[in-house]
Backbone:
């Protein structure tokens, strides 16, 4: 198709404006994290640092339990990701390949879990955690999220598109389910597994209300709550300091979004299609 | 068969412990009062629900939740569609724009709220900086009850846009080229092509996004907690925030009333999902 140069320039201009608006909070956060306390507090606001400095990052890492909270978030998000992958792989395998009584009913129960808003059941779950003395522990942050209806659904859709003949051939050869799963199905399902891994990691990493309730010691807290509390810290009243912490918290998720977007989109479309 | 059950058992057990049992326990709590330590006390029947529907500020909370939902869902869908359409342009470097425009999706509620809190700052914030350029008096975005809810909604819309753009872009890419070719052969151009072909073909995606973003909006918590703590004077206290205030904030342990509210939220989510599927699905164009 021929391109009209004026229309093309207009398209670029529109996209540049949209990109600037959508990226502005990130650009501002990076720019502000490199400013001095005085510079960021000028009025009207300054947008670029006159002398970029990294000292804010050093301050954030020294003044607070931020490194520990970073580690906590990594541990929790990784455990949730691995847990959801394992439970979803097995349940999706059962729904896609195996016979079982009440299969449709059980699958409906799995789907129903996606309809229950976590906020609606947060009080009893909090009471359970406090009953079993799990407040301020990793299990409190991890256990409730080890299984996911979404993960099962996503993988089942992928497994269903898999040729049944291959499955039967392996079983005829005397291979068991685990052998088929491990050496054939999973290697060929990498895209779907990557989608689920990214989704589960992101959702665990970004949690806010639940850690706020079940953790009340700074050194056990997750990074998200830590970031939101930077303003309460004595030294942290200046925005440049808060922004340095925020930029640090964004590094893993920005990497996932920019390099894993292909897989994320696959997760989206699996959610958009109904089975 | 035994293998199959063994394979679904781990998930099923986890769902029972962390989703279905709590759901039942919520109902139980909502019919009982509780002591200071959260232990259920006497059976009070529907008293919590009666209180919930008669207290005037709780009715306001539900209305406010509805307003907040509309303020976030509608702009989110409209802006998301505009951006996704712009990203359909066939020009060099469009892939980079596509990646960059999904940026808000990398933000959590906390990181986005912390940055917007600085934007909304009356003294050094960007929003008042822009107003200053036009010689407009500074606005107390988060401290004025008239603007607080809208301000929280603005932050929420931006946060949601990354996801919306990703979903809508993949919806647009799913429309087969042949349909456009055929329409062009029939003489359809520009706006006509957009309203007659693109939008009807995009309705399933818009519909999916409408359901998902409505439910997300109803569950909003972090941005309210960080930006306003439900204030000023309750101006941003939505249903979920009210559950938090009653059950957990300031040493409050009114689990019974909070559970009743949480179940109202659950009920609203179920009804909205059902209504959206029932009413809208018939008008949605499916291939």
Residues:
């Amino acid at each position: 198709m021929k391109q009209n140069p004026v229309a093309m320039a207009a398209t670029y201009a529109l996209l540049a404006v949209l990109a600037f608006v959508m990226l502005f909070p990130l650009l501002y956060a990076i720019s502000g994290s490199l400013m001095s306390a005085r510079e960021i507090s000028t009025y009207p606001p300054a947008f670029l640092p006159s002398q970029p400095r990294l000292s804010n990052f050093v301050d954030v890492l020294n003044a607070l339990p931020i490194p520990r909270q970073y580690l906590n978030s990594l541990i929790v998000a990784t455990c949730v990701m691995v847990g959801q992958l394992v439970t979803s792989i097995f349940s999706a395998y059962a729904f896609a390949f195996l016979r079982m009584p009440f299969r449709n009913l059980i699958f409906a129960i799995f789907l129903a879990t996606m309809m229950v808003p976590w906020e609606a059941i947060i009080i009893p779950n909090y009471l359970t955690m406090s009953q079993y003395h799990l407040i301020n522990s990793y299990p409190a942050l991890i256990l409730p999220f080890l299984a996911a209806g979404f993960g099962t659904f996503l993988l089942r859709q992928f497994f269903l598109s898999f040729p049944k003949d291959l499955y039967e051939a392996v079983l005829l050869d005397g291979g068991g389910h685990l052998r088929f799963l491990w050496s054939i199905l999973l290697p060929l399902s990498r895209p779907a597994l990557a989608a689920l891994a990214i989704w589960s990691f992101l959702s665990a990493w970004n949690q806010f209300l639940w850690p706020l309730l079940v953790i009340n010691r700074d050194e056990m807290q997750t990074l998200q709550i830590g970031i939101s509390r930077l303003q309460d810290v004595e030294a942290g009243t200046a925005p440049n300091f808060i922004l340095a912490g925020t930029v640090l918290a964004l590094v893993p998720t920005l990497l996932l979004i920019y390099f894993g977007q292909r897989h994320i989109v696959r997760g989206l479309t699996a959610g958009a299609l109904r089975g | 068969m035994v293998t199959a059950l063994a394979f679904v058992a781990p998930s099923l057990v986890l769902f029972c412990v962390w989703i279905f049992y709590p759901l039942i326990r919520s109902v139980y709590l909502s019919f009982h009062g509780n002591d200071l330590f959260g232990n259920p006390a006497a059976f009070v029947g529907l008293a919590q629900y009666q209180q919930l529907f008669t207290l005037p500020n709780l009715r306001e909370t539900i209305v406010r939740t509805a307003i907040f939902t509309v303020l976030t869902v509608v702009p989110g869908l409209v802006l998301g569609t505009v951006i996704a359409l712009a990203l359909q342009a066939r020009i060099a470097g469009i892939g980079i724009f596509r990646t960059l425009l999904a940026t808000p999706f990398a933000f959590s509620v906390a990181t986005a709220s912390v940055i917007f809190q600085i934007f909304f700052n009356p003294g050094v914030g960007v929003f008042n900086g822009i107003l200053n350029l036009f010689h407009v008096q500074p606005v107390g975005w988060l401290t004025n009850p008239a603007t607080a809810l809208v301000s929280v909604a603005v932050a929420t819309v931006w946060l949601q846009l990354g996801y919306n753009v990703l979903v809508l872009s993949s919806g647009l890419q799913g429309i087969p080229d042949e349909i456009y070719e055929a329409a062009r052969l029939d003489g359809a151009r520009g706006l006509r092509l957009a309203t007659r072909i693109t939008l009807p073909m995009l309705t399933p995606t818009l519909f999916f996004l409408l359901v998902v973003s409505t439910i997300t909006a109803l569950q909003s918590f972090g941005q309210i907690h960080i930006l306003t703590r439900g204030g000023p004077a309750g101006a941003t206290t939505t249903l979920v925030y009210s559950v938090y205030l009653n059950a957990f904030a300031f040493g409050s342990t009114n689990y019974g009333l909070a559970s009743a509210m949480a179940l109202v939220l659950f009920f609203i989510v179920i009804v909205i999902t059902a209504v959206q599927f029932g009413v809208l699905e018939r008008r949605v164009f499916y291939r």
Q: What stands out?
A: Chain B is about 70% helix and 0% strand. Chain B touches chain A through 94 residues (CB under 8 Å).
